[in-house]
Amino acid sequence: MARSRKAKPQDIHDIALALPGVEIEEGPLGNAIYQVRKKSFVFFRNPRPDALDAGEGKGDVVNVLRFGFA
Fold this sequence. Notes:
The chain is built from one helix and four strands; from the N terminus they run αββββ. The termini are far apart. The protein is an alpha+beta fold. It has a four-stranded antiparallel β-sheet, covered by helices on one side.
């Protein structure tokens, strides 16, 4: 039985790039933004002083957007 572990940024990079038509854009602070046809679907959020989410300050915060590509 395989042991589970937390996803690492490299895991997200590998999975995103394995999808068809994915390109990487660079965000304003050098963060990776994964896109298909100029529509973002995964990005690493920049740190924000007003963030209230539990993940802030504890490493990378990743946003995954869900929508259909027609």
